[in-house]
Amino acid sequence: QVQVVESGGGLVQAGGSLRLSCAASGRTPRTYDMAWFRQAPGKEREFVAAIGPSVGSSRYAESVKGRFTIARDNAKNMVFLQMSSLKPEDTAVYYCAAGPSVGRYDYWGQGTQVTVSS
Fold this sequence. Notes:
Distance between the termini: 40 Å
Largest sheet: 7 strands, mixed
Low-confidence stretches: none
Number of helices: 0
Mean pLDDT: 94
Structural class: mainly beta
């Protein structure tokens, strides 16, 4: 079992930055693929970014490429999402997820709200 807890959401103006954190605990989270998803009101949840246990294994949605950076600290079992040049359309609840392989996320956090004002 793996527990996942997000933090760092909030209200920011367009063009600003925000960093989300995800703390993972439990069984072997260091070997897991970690990802961020988001869900805006009235929309389906969508993939944002993911990172595997290996260096250079990060992946991004086209809508955030060049603006968001995902990173992990295996020593602390933490994953971060640095968000820059934020746009109002980035407003959503952001979820951290963990899983044993790419595309398979068995464990989810409760989500953290990010609101970008215009």
